[in-house]
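Contributing new records

If you add data, match the layout below exactly. Sequence lines come first and carry their own label; structure lines follow with theirs. Keep one chain per record. Anything else will be rejected by the validation script.
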Amino acid sequence: MRRCFVVANAMGRKETLSKLIPYLAEHVAGCGTDGENGSDGNPGQSSSPTQPSSSGESSLSPSNIGDGVTSDEDDEILLILAEQLGQMVLAGLVPARRSTSILPILERLAGVEETVVRDKAVMSINAIIPLLARVGGDDEQIDKNSTPDDVFAEEAEARVACVKNAPVLLLAMVRRLSGAEWFTSRVSACGILPEVYRFFQVQGIRKSGGSGKSGMDRNEDTETKRMLRMHHKELCEDETPMVRRGAAKNLGRFVEAVSNLPSGILPATPNNWGDDGPTPLASSEPEVSSTIETHAVVRTTVAASPRLRDSILVEEIVPTYMKLAKDEQDSVRLLAVVNSGSIGLALGLDGVLSEQWVLPIVKAGSVDLSWRVRHRLAKNFSAISISQGYRYDNTTIESDIPTSLTDVMRLDIVLRSFAALLSDAEAEVRASAVENVARMARIGGSQLFRKHVVPVLPALAEDVVVEVRARLARTVMECCGLEEEEGCGDISKSASVGGNILDDATILNNMRPLLERFLRDEFAEVQLHVLTRLGSMSRLLGQMTVVVDTVVPMASSVNWRVREAVGKILPHLAAARGVSYFEEDLLTPWMGLLLDRVAEVRSACVEGTARLVATAGPDWIREEVLPRYGSIYDESTSYLSRIAVLRSYSSLISGKDGEKHDEGKSRESIGGSSAGRVLIDDVVDKLLRGLDDRVANVRMVAAKALADVSSECGDGLLNTRVKPALNARVDEDEDEDCKEYAKEALLVCASV
């Protein structure tokens, strides 16, 4: 079964449609589909038992699924089948205009008892439906010039049949699934409804534009969408909790479809939706992630159809949402609450409507009796908050609209609810809530942040659960550091101007005690979240004496990752506290880290060399650092220490900061060529000495370092000293690898 796609590809499209799919339908999925249906894609000729019986009742039941399979691996086989059928269409092996023969099989699989099989079948159906919506469009025209006449006629006929029958087939499928006696089919109907509704939205837009043909006129299309909303309402009010849970899970997607908003328009949160949250599905529409893009798309869409918001959303969808959010089952409430963001977007970012309908649900969810509801709300709190239509006081978002007093009052309620989650009795809730601290600081601004959030942070910094403290340390550093250094999710990325989320006064007065506490934490994970981001706030380190004094002793920490982070941050302290402070208190620990037994720690010191050059200047480096490097090289008994020294010499000249940058971007030059010109003679002397080291690894590093600094060497230095020494290595060295490194260095020197 796992090779089903390969078999279908080998058989070809025609044989797959006429033989393989009917065979799978009859012998595996247990629903007969004749070859004629498979060949022309006309659902009207299907003999599938998924068609409603004469009594009007659905024949869907998990008991008659997979009658052709009797082993204990039935569910696994059906799971693979559901995936393979979807892949056949997505890969183009079965074109979308002929995929209607596959939908009855997937419909049967969507009614089985095993959850993973149903979910996979629903995902495949949802991936096929957008392709069906394209069939009637201009982008699905068949190229007559490159297609034989007989094939063109068949494909054109299949396209016409698909355009005519796809709406009828999808509507009938929704009716059967949502009206099935067994709850499993109704649960699957909840997952399919959003894409089916979006399908008819596309059909309606196409008809209004006058393109394509359809078997349903505009009035029928409007009535169809009304019926789909009615089916959704019935599912939301179903007596079976699992069905209501499925409806609540897909409520956001359905609301977006009704509002004609792009799929995935709600910005991502720091936490994934999780097992119970919306699952990303294959879609023909791009996802919108940034806050500015989200708000622009929403306002444009809602402005185009204001009646949709007033007559459908407010009158039909919102009452259903509120009912689900107050359901007696906490598994239903938690899924409804996390879809509050989609409701806010569908309401057009209208602060008044959000205050009336959404804000009470968020406020109630923050104090819900079920910790699972509070936990899920805490995970997605920032994404929900930014969809409520508040006017931000940050100039990077809607700078032409001033913050109103009403919006400040609403945000005050939002921040108060967020503070309640931060103070929750359950550690899982607190841990998820602290992930949103940086985003909520951006949304609420420094004033409201200080009023509601800052008072609860000291208790969180002392939390008995290490995960809470670790996450808080990370998000506090996101608040304190520059946004371009460590972005705070989508909201940070939406800012086009650099700066901090919090002002410097708030950082120094309120955040500094937290940083001191984190650095004294007994767990290295908490310390590392501060140390690895401390460089992004180096401008303030001069006013954080206790923080700096706490960092220095950590150079001898038993945890090598802590020592590595200290090695990277020490050059930043030189810039913050001055070269004299670095020389008196930090130079010795920094040199000690260069001799560390862990390679990553030594590399951290090497990477910080360039920044130290930029801060202290080449003259200070020549007087204070180079003699120490020479002593280490002369006295060290480990070749690894000598390698670290040679790499440091190279870093002094090349001026690379050694820090991580986004892929595709050049690494920032810190030292510059001016330092190279001052230090080049001394550095070349040391590197040439490394070429004569007794250890081959040291000689290879020296050759590579000479290649790196060759661009700063003048012609005289290259021709009189560097090239002759490298040629000697090529001729005399006994190690073949050393010879290769020397040859490569010579090639680099020749290209200078």
